[in-house]
Batch of 4 targets.
Target 1
Amino acid sequence: MDAPSTPTPRWGLWLLGARGSVATTMTVGWAAMVANLAGPEGMVTQLSAFDGVGLPGLPDLVIGGCDIGEVPLVKRAEQLETAGVVPHGVVDRIAEELATVDARLTAGVTARDVAEHPAAALARLRADLTAFRTAHDLDRVVVVNVASTEPPVDPHDSHRDVDLLLAALDADLAVLSPAPLVAVAALTSGAAFVDFTPSSATVLPAIQQLAERHGLPLAGRDGKTGETLLKTALAPMFADRALRVRSWSGMNLLGGGDGQTLADPTHARSKLESKAAPLQAILGYQPDGPVRIDHVADLGDWKTAWDLITFEGFLGTRMQLQFTWQGCDSALAAPLVLDLARLVALAMGAGQSGPLPALAYFFKDPVGSSQHRLAEQFTDLITWARTTAAATGTTAA
Amino acid sequence: MDAPSTPTPRWGLWLLGARGSVATTMTVGWAAMVANLAGPEGMVTQLSAFDGVGLPGLPDLVIGGCDIGEVPLVKRAEQLETAGVVPHGVVDRIAEELATVDARLTAGVTARDVAEHPAAALARLRADLTAFRTAHDLDRVVVVNVASTEPPVDPHDSHRDVDLLLAALDADLAVLSPAPLVAVAALTSGAAFVDFTPSSATVLPAIQQLAERHGLPLAGRDGKTGETLLKTALAPMFADRALRVRSWSGMNLLGGGDGQTLADPTHARSKLESKAAPLQAILGYQPDGPVRIDHVADLGDWKTAWDLITFEGFLGTRMQLQFTWQGCDSALAAPLVLDLARLVALAMGAGQSGPLPALAYFFKDPVGSSQHRLAEQFTDLITWARTTAAATGTTAA
Amino acid sequence: MDAPSTPTPRWGLWLLGARGSVATTMTVGWAAMVANLAGPEGMVTQLSAFDGVGLPGLPDLVIGGCDIGEVPLVKRAEQLETAGVVPHGVVDRIAEELATVDARLTAGVTARDVAEHPAAALARLRADLTAFRTAHDLDRVVVVNVASTEPPVDPHDSHRDVDLLLAALDADLAVLSPAPLVAVAALTSGAAFVDFTPSSATVLPAIQQLAERHGLPLAGRDGKTGETLLKTALAPMFADRALRVRSWSGMNLLGGGDGQTLADPTHARSKLESKAAPLQAILGYQPDGPVRIDHVADLGDWKTAWDLITFEGFLGTRMQLQFTWQGCDSALAAPLVLDLARLVALAMGAGQSGPLPALAYFFKDPVGSSQHRLAEQFTDLITWARTTAAATGTTAA
Amino acid sequence: MDAPSTPTPRWGLWLLGARGSVATTMTVGWAAMVANLAGPEGMVTQLSAFDGVGLPGLPDLVIGGCDIGEVPLVKRAEQLETAGVVPHGVVDRIAEELATVDARLTAGVTARDVAEHPAAALARLRADLTAFRTAHDLDRVVVVNVASTEPPVDPHDSHRDVDLLLAALDADLAVLSPAPLVAVAALTSGAAFVDFTPSSATVLPAIQQLAERHGLPLAGRDGKTGETLLKTALAPMFADRALRVRSWSGMNLLGGGDGQTLADPTHARSKLESKAAPLQAILGYQPDGPVRIDHVADLGDWKTAWDLITFEGFLGTRMQLQFTWQGCDSALAAPLVLDLARLVALAMGAGQSGPLPALAYFFKDPVGSSQHRLAEQFTDLITWARTTAAATGTTAA
């Protein structure tokens, strides 16, 4: 692990959706790593490429958050153990840490809250965040949205201008869905905001302006963990070999709550939009072919994606690639949330504000960046981390 | 296409295995492109990234070579048309160009030639190459090996030192198999050498020294066109996401002459060696799992590769990826041979000698480079091409 | 081929959709087989199991029909040649036979015809069929629907009773879509009717009564050629090994006109209904999991189906099967149309009337049968063919 | 469960390889079913098709056997629990039953035993079997071989004649490997013998004669649980649709002890032979294409088989099917061992002797039967079970 040259800042991670599968897996994994019950697999910032960058340490992290669900974290962790997401025998040994985090969680913010009493909801969220910071004497707080996919918000003039937006909220107008409202609460309370879920939170100009105004960073959106991860690894191969992709069809089957939400076409819209962008960006054209998401309860947290790619090479010869990806979404997403929290905390220390394009590596639809090629994104990330660390003097000796 | 600022050099491409499937497909495609009967699909150097690099033009290319087979090129092209590698209707329209190339081809060099009369074989090859250069008044000649996979040569002291090697050949000792002997003939006749096939030609120290001594470039080995191409696109994704690859099994089924050669374990050895290197290099460890090559006549030129990758993420969670690649090896390889000839001709113009690490992008087992990550190889290639062009003044206005 | 002991009847096959892909492929294949340009692959009734059954001979067949399209059959055949459905070189050699069939084709029946002037449309179809029979002096005529999938007809009282139906048509009421109207025309003109497409034609009680009244056989519906064929081959394996299927998801990608029609949810309804029945029937329960049909133009006539089956065995252990089927729908369907015509002609010779359950082998949703297990269907077919042949004395010596 | 009309016989199952994965899974599953901790999934004889056949009941079964391994059954069961073959929480609750079975197990028979002291080994096995029968007062004993695959025995004259064989064993000649020696011990002690593993035990004529002489049944060989199960479900589909299979390639990856044994070409020979037979039998020809077995430790008990089938239909059109089977061999095999024991006990009650062709459903290479079509095998099995039950009066009221 890294050995920072400056005193470790006290840092906090506050989760919107803190009892969801991703958040629970993350909290279990964090506690297990701190207790030496789990290795660093899946965490990007534990790679040797980050040695010496002086990222905040995992043992120093304080986790909080809110959720509309009330099932205790330990219980949620046991459910994930039964589902095979979390290995048998771990939850028992970290139950105390889970209970400690659980005790810090506050009530979630519902669609009804933001529709009927947005000003009150915002005030309550700000109070919760301030209480979290104060109670644990935190130098930096990163808020991460890991709640369910939200449909795009209905357009409203206030979305384009930070002053109009703040005025609308003051006037108790229902112009934001939960995730963007949490983003406003975070930024106006001195916390950075990361949208790991597809929502409008990081793409509304008014919220980006708010981040700039408060000198706080933003990152998003929609964690890249499965089919899209593969697309951004594979599409450059076709592009750079001058192989023309004629069709790229993607069929996603998933169970769990996420699968159920995404089987609803309204909710799926944000997700399908963010899934379409990378191919256009990398190939320079949009190949034919559908992208489908279907709910199959039996698959649980294991998402199965089957993609069929037809392409054309020299003399027009037709060829095919197909792949089947069977990944556990929660296990893939959870460590990235920890990575993002550490990296955004680094950016906070360097006084960076607004969207962070260098974090594009983590997202399907990166805010502030048009780079979708996975390898380039990784290079950009490493370069940024080292440069930022050097600039702020956090680089380890 | 590029518009060079200097007069185009007269350049030639001399093929070992000029009547094989790759060479025939390449020659058909070259003629079709020059006649505007085919687009640039599959050719890397036709990408806009190479605009302004001033690569030699396709219409100026003179193609020659040798082969142990005697079936005329037009006939071979018709066979590929029937097999679906070459589209219907093209061969008829470029038959004259094929006949012109065919008339330039000389006798191939057999295992018996190099075993019984190596000195005579070498002399004959040098004479053939000199005649080719003189007849067409060529400024630069690139020799490319696209013959069948050769087993590794039996080790011999002369392989380590250029003077010992030349002395051994003078003494008519059978120390080289056909491809390395052709490399010696090329380099001692002023031609560059590219090994597109797995052979020992570019890895023997004595031959690398020979290239340096004559100020000529070398590139190789084993064109990266299918399963390994995918491995080098996908393995970085696992490495950079800290996902531990537990096993990677690759099953390759292919028909055609190549399939038959590779079903022979002795010949397959070179191929299997070059297929194993990339994962070790990218991941830092060799995952469990076999790599198999089997001959299935019915598949013809369409190689089907099925790979199963099992990996481990956060908290040790097990996941899987499998892919099926159905590519036409000849159609994938042929344009890369043209790319390599152009790029090596560029290097010759810049006076570069010895192995060219910047061409690693094209090879399973790149000579002079330990870079196996596909995206980094592409970046290195573009950077090198631009730098070389700038240095030699071939950059277009 | 079979050697019938009785004089071969003169028989005719009249196709609804005679210029579609299935019909064109069938007509090309029929002419090619008669001219010894193609083997018996794909035709069930050419298997040795049918030796001695005395089915009508292919050379004696007279093909006619109608279509709303006007592209000549030869042209349609050339399109299929380009698409790779029909091998190069065949169409040229049977162009005359195609022209002969083409000359017999009459105008198709449109949705507008049956909505605005159903009585006139029926009268015209009957006249066409009678003219076809008379012109060629045919003993038996089989009408087969190979037109596009039709949405289910809107329910109407007349569908339940043959007399009400005939009265409604007399009164020029628009109670039938094209396929059922053709069925009425066929049955009232002395021809048998086969529904190879999903439509309501063979499932309306009134039409089944009409067949009984006229002593004519019916068969249908929806030819079983791809994913469903596999389902009915595989599902019995799970059932008989007591392996509980937890989910069965099927993703179908197809190009061509059929793909376009089925991308329309209204038209797809009939198809999706017929695709769901077999699993329920074989397993005794409906497993979870979607069935999707998507249009991917690039795939042309090659339908790609990917199915993921999750199942549970001893002690609840979870397992998986996935398959990818890449079949040419037209090539799979075309020979079955010839098979059905021959078998229905056999039934006509035996005086069988109404739905023929023994032909369930050919259909996704077999009229008159609840048997969906493929192997049992085949056994039933062979048994029926032999019994029927014996009863009618058509058995060869 | 069935309610036999006659008093249940006391019956025993004696396992060669009683501590192996299949045997352990079977014993765990048996105990779990008897204790109502597991359902009937995976057991063929629990299907309603066997209602009323009067098979011996599971609660009445006494399990014994031998093994060369000495790890206690409970420990083996815990290993399988960790590997995910047996669900968490079951082993604890049946530990007593496992210990009871464990106490009955005797020393296994090694390759060295049968090579150096065959007569003594045979005598010891007979004594063990007699003791097992006597101790539990058993009416019928079925011996089942679930040990590792054995290479074919070296041919010896004594294999063709029962008297020569018995004489050779009396003379202490090393003419049999362990499994056939156990078969001789079983049959000469009044027990039936089933070869669930590929060995020579049930195919040597001398052993078949021995079974006939003692009036005891034999069944074998090589349980059909994965790729071959699918082949015999799918190949009839191709045959009966007149689709010509051009190639069928099968790649099997498996971990565990079985994988290690089969990675050895000598041991794999028996297995590969039994895997090749079904296609020849069903299709009438042997398609091109390899069958490979490779060991991939990480896969554990989950065998992954990938098959690529290329085939030809109407007008020679080429198509493909590929499937990936991910099954747990132990979970698939274990219930079939219980099924076989029950069915062979039924045959013993009916006085049937020699190979039982009606049990072909369970085997890759069925002794006494050339029927490989899965559906027909199932029909034959049901018919036989009912007929046998009726003949012996075991049919339930």
Target 2
Amino acid sequence: MVGIIIIAHGDLAQALHHAVEHVLGKQRQMEFINVAADSDPVALQHQLDRCIDQCDGGNGVILCADMFGGTPCNVALGRLDPEKIDILSGISLPSLITIASERSQIADPTALARKGAASGRRYLCMASTMLKPGA
Amino acid sequence: MVGIIIIAHGDLAQALHHAVEHVLGKQRQMEFINVAADSDPVALQHQLDRCIDQCDGGNGVILCADMFGGTPCNVALGRLDPEKIDILSGISLPSLITIASERSQIADPTALARKGAASGRRYLCMASTMLKPGA
């Protein structure tokens, strides 16, 4: 099973982790890293390495970051490994729920990240469009 | 200026609000509603109505929910108003940052929500694709 690590600004990683478990129940091989404005980048890299060790059960890991260009994503990008670690940035709750719920069937981090991205795009939707008569 | 209300499971709304202010600085006409597992739906509707009153400066409001089908989104959908309130569900930090940063130029909630959705889809991306040589 592919591991999941959420890394984001402030308490966002923890809040997303809790929301995923609220919807799907307790998760194994899933961790979060909260990044404060004054977090030390070297300490963050060490923390991320420990999380990767904890979450990788042999099928690799997806690092889920809140936003491309932010410190959390930059720290994650340093661990990109085509063999076993991919990074998905700009995550939402629907993208995370798809990744967490389909990782028992999809053993490749990049294929799983692609599913998560597709789900996040599909379920980012406006009520005025979805609920329009005849839509 | 269009108002913004984030409504989501657990502490997710607050964490997203803080992350937006971390990136863009202090925001006016922007509130959050954390929805606990045992939150009373009627009390949530009243809380949402108070937030709408606070955030609507005359150009309407966007209600930003974490996931279509969840309680926070369902509460928001009850306030859909084609004249002044739209709902965007499946939000991410990039979508919120676009909405918050462009609302001084775009005075229509639906047009602004559409921009936020487009931004969220564009910036939900995989490192393995973005950083591929020749991509």
Target 3
Amino acid sequence: MTETKKIRTDVDNETFWREVGLDVERHDDLIKGLPPVFESVFLTQKNRPEKISYFDSFIQDLHGKRPKEVYDRKNNGDKVIGAFCAFFPEEFVHATGAVPLVLCGGAEFPIADAEKILPRNTCPLIKSSFGFKISNLCPYFQSADLLVGETTCGGKKKMYELLGEYVPTHTLHLPHKKDEALSRNLWFEEVKKFKGKVEELTGRKVTDEKLLAAIDLANRKRLALARVYNTRKADPVPISGKDVLLVMQLALFDDAERFVKKTNELAEELEARVDRGEGVAAKGAPRVLISGTPMTIPNWKLHDTIEKSGAVVVTEESCTGTRYFTDLVDTSDASSSDDLIRAMAEKYLHINCACFTPNNERPVDVVRLAGEYKADGVVYYVLQFCHEFNTEFAKVERALRAVGIPVIKIETDYSDSDRGQLKTRIETFVEMLKASKASKAASVSKEAGIKASATGS
Amino acid sequence: MTETKKIRTDVDNETFWREVGLDVERHDDLIKGLPPVFESVFLTQKNRPEKISYFDSFIQDLHGKRPKEVYDRKNNGDKVIGAFCAFFPEEFVHATGAVPLVLCGGAEFPIADAEKILPRNTCPLIKSSFGFKISNLCPYFQSADLLVGETTCGGKKKMYELLGEYVPTHTLHLPHKKDEALSRNLWFEEVKKFKGKVEELTGRKVTDEKLLAAIDLANRKRLALARVYNTRKADPVPISGKDVLLVMQLALFDDAERFVKKTNELAEELEARVDRGEGVAAKGAPRVLISGTPMTIPNWKLHDTIEKSGAVVVTEESCTGTRYFTDLVDTSDASSSDDLIRAMAEKYLHINCACFTPNNERPVDVVRLAGEYKADGVVYYVLQFCHEFNTEFAKVERALRAVGIPVIKIETDYSDSDRGQLKTRIETFVEMLKASKASKAASVSKEAGIKASATGS
């Protein structure tokens, strides 16, 4: 645990940070907050899987080791392409040997800087990302040769216009509808145009062969994550929601091949735990599905509150969750370069983002996931001022109530100001889930008793 | 003035309201608030043009006379098509003899009802519109056979999904970009599809001849509004900003032919005033341009505050302003039905809505309008939680500062809770404009004095 406190005093990092143009003095203030939070949220957990240590060590030097690797690649002529969203077609980036990074900001620290330009009434993720860049507080951002935005929401698309004044930014035109021929074609052409953009930036051609290999790599990453998630269907659950969230968050930062290897190692350990009936929470602990907006490092607030209330998070219907990995790029019918790109474009349109209208697949998906992961209740998570996910709650809530699954909506930002209120609401919800489980169990055993006496057994 | 107080006691209206399914008891509470506000905002003004009386009388029976006319048309077999936005291609509606209405909600009253389903953190216009429908508080809404939404923002597009559960709703897919071939084509096809929708609903064909006549009608409405606006370039200005806002707001409710006639009559009177040098504000009064989100009845708060502070509003860069009427549908090169539709589609894409990314034409346009209307300052108006217009402020502000025009951003909702703060901020801004005008005038006259003494004249 003392390791986590070393970050601030790592002199090598400081030299590196100065070289890449970080505002080192302010960055010190930012980064020193991380170890105590990480310790309190993660390291106090009991019976964690051993293989999570790789992901712990990644976080413990988040702004050191991995950014240095990225800069090594950059110094060797590879470009770095940063993005903010699950709609980012990372396959082209892999195919040109460039480095893809997903840069969403999850920290409160740079928000005050962003609010000098962006409205306060905007989603914390948007303000945090923008603040990280304009204040030179993130080595990943510093490394990017190109940033890739997308038109998922009004706040983001307008922020990207302003971000483009600091660093080259390409905004993918994601249409509002996913079920119309013209929209699908527009998106296909947009993905194809992005391929050209990556080729131009890197000076390297995306051959079919390289693209197939890149698709395979991205698919293997998705499969490794799906494999970890699959173990969470067991009761007792072999890993905490927090730990899986950490893995998900690092999927967006780490080297893809290494990440696949480490995630599969973790999955293997978890599968063995499931076989042994070993869990991190007691069998029968209330199981929570989180559905909604993504959570990026170090946004661990909601998981932490839920799991410290005695429940366990068993899945995330989120872009830092199932929406990121569920669909693979299916190239089995592809017989041309355009077919490969179309397969990619289609995969991304299957992400049930609330930015689509309508997005009727999402309530269905949340109900399906709640069933598969045996969730006792759903916490619907909305980053403050996200109109899309916030308004879509009405439909998801209705779908869940129709099958008798309790749901609570939590709208919050990155600040600590609502921590007390959040804790109270979550604890009440978890108590309600416990009471409901106990009453169901009692009624099942009563029924079993009646049956037993009726049959005389 | 006593006329305005009659609304509540109009027994004929009450019978009508019951017939069309209004919640009459709650509607009484809603409508009784209007006369005192209208009196305080409008009827206390001095030296108003005579021809504004038509528009006054419209408001004084807002939920009576005009909705009855609409129902008479409906009972005669004409359909009623309601919309919420300047992107609504009203020409098809005129062409089929149906009644177009733009239904945006500008009242606080139904918002509490809407917030039972929609997030509180959403734009008041969205909540008000939705609340009016679900609570049966608006006879215009009651009359609509079809509502037409559009994908201008996340809050609206997701609200339309829910609205569609109460009344048939068709959402136009407006793309995020206006300057790409595929986007323009998607929008053209979307407009064309809407023509089919209107034909299907009304059972009437949109022939080229009828469409040309409808385009001509809509263009004449735009020209009549432009003619009124043009008189506001004079100093002293012949009409208050409030009165023009009233005209703009009714452009969306009134019978189009009658509205054109009445608006041209008003324009004629204003032109005569300009010729005589007659104004509603003193010559030299600070001139304010309002730029931003639309204002629908009875949202008169900002204009009222500005004009009661001693300034005059000389133009609105808004969808209840120049964005509504500036561009005409140009059919001069059209030689087919598709050409006519394409001309319409192109006109609508010229609306510089902040929903587009980028929307670089808008800052340019605000600066141009400030020059043409000799604005001393700009009040940038944002309906609360409108990410698009709020974020775009950064660009508009920069463009205005570059040419030395002061600007203040006002973000507000429909409540009265910020009236005091709003008044203070606006008064301070207007005092600053006055001081700046006085100092400029002094420096001009000093310079003139120096020149005069230098030339010995």
Target 4
Amino acid sequence: MAVYTEVSDDELARFVARYDIGSLLSFKGIAEGVENTNYLVHTTGGTFILTLYEKRVAVEDLPFFLGLMDHLSARGVTCPLPVRDTSDQMLNQLAGRSAALITFLEGVWPKRPKVAHCLELGKALARMHIAGEDFPARRANALGIQDWRPLFNKFSAKAEDLCPGLHDLIGEELRFLESSWPKDLPQGVIHADLFPDNVFFVDDKISGIIDFYFACNDALAYDIAVCLNAWCFDANSTFEPAKGDALLKGYDSVRRLSPPEHDAMPILARGAAMRFLLTRSYDWLNTPKDALVARKDPEDYIRRLKFHQSVQSISDYAKQLTS
Amino acid sequence: MAVYTEVSDDELARFVARYDIGSLLSFKGIAEGVENTNYLVHTTGGTFILTLYEKRVAVEDLPFFLGLMDHLSARGVTCPLPVRDTSDQMLNQLAGRSAALITFLEGVWPKRPKVAHCLELGKALARMHIAGEDFPARRANALGIQDWRPLFNKFSAKAEDLCPGLHDLIGEELRFLESSWPKDLPQGVIHADLFPDNVFFVDDKISGIIDFYFACNDALAYDIAVCLNAWCFDANSTFEPAKGDALLKGYDSVRRLSPPEHDAMPILARGAAMRFLLTRSYDWLNTPKDALVARKDPEDYIRRLKFHQSVQSISDYAKQLTS
């Protein structure tokens, strides 16, 4: 939760005047979003989210992210639509930051996802993957397998302070992942960070998918593996089979998973657990205890990783999925 | 800026169901408000602010604050209206806190108030004072003159660390204020904290007055003195005569100031400067540098106090005001 950049009423009124959305009625800084500053803006033309991009987002990636939202939104995916100003631009400057105005989506994210949420999520993820097929821009995954070892090297000397045994756990797992990572899976645009706080529901139906600031080109099934980690474990990091089952069946009902994707699911799930274990460990060691942004305990992802290491096949995630 | 208390989607949906405002569509924590946690809530019935009262607000005072908003709103003052639940209650419990749902007011607060804003403010303040005349509940000013010396005693030993000369400045001024403070001025319900961030404008007209959590019974003219300090000095803490003039004339055009109120304005302005100098000094010394809440520099109020000490009469604030 953070508002890193303050915007004055006069500045914002001038900014809003560049768009064909009426005049400014109100704006409130939102205590959400770890990476960027967000304001909820009411104008006589509607309700919008104003995002000011802070230093953790690379400015050169913004056209990819905004273009993707524009592309997906035009294909019926309920994601925020970047509003174009009167010069047809989606990206502008405000208070010394790159800034975009996007449509506001109603909905609340589920703090404790239920099986029904996971089923809807699976379907929506598959629809998003299909809608992204003809998106022409490309962006490499900046937190893909090739980035994990360099990230580990940044904190490996302190890994044991975080948790005894963590150094060897990560080291050995990285060796396994690097030697066995699948390379020929169907590729496409993935969200890559589809945690519950990025998916809004109204009446148990998905009303919005937000926060495309990790989106990239990678194996589509890796996106499912991220969701398995993010949605299908309980508060004690114990896997919940009914949720995994719902997620995978929901997905498969819209975009049929191929046999190689079936085979790869356990290693993809291990990789996804590794990716979040690494970033959370690094952030835990490098974020002051009293920072504005809450640190997330890496322990949850140690438990997830160990679970995935015990998995034999995709049928441990979804019982009756047939290839 | 702060969200001190997290609320889950399920908790909030159950809370909203107690009110006749439709079902929950979305909610966002707002990065505003120093004392309490605020969420902006959309339901199928409208837009609301949900406030969770944190420890700095005395629970026993909440019926006064909410009752006052209800009273003023019914008399045409554009302030938030506390929504009553289906049991006719304005105050409920949520996430272990006292909580109220109030109507959302459009508008933005002026970061750099203009003369026109001060004129509107003066009129609105007078209308609020008149509308409060028949409000039956009473609350003493918890930061009135009798509270200033005890507050100073809490940090007087450290006053010189804050600013050389501050100890004697406050000590001597308190002696003057305590010996000369006017006691027979017209009394009523005052806002007591009417800073620019508590007054919303749309198209240079006041659309809302918010944050009644310092409201109390005291001299009406003291409320004007607070506004003189809060609205009528520039960024260098230099008095801006055109703004003082607009504020006082706006007020006087709606509720005629009496001769004793004219005479008392300079000492009331000194008192108001002292009240904010004391709380800011105390907070500066007692708030960690890295806290969620921004500390406000007491220096601004040292300069204001010194200006008011040089004032001879109300005509130094408003040139042609006639009694």
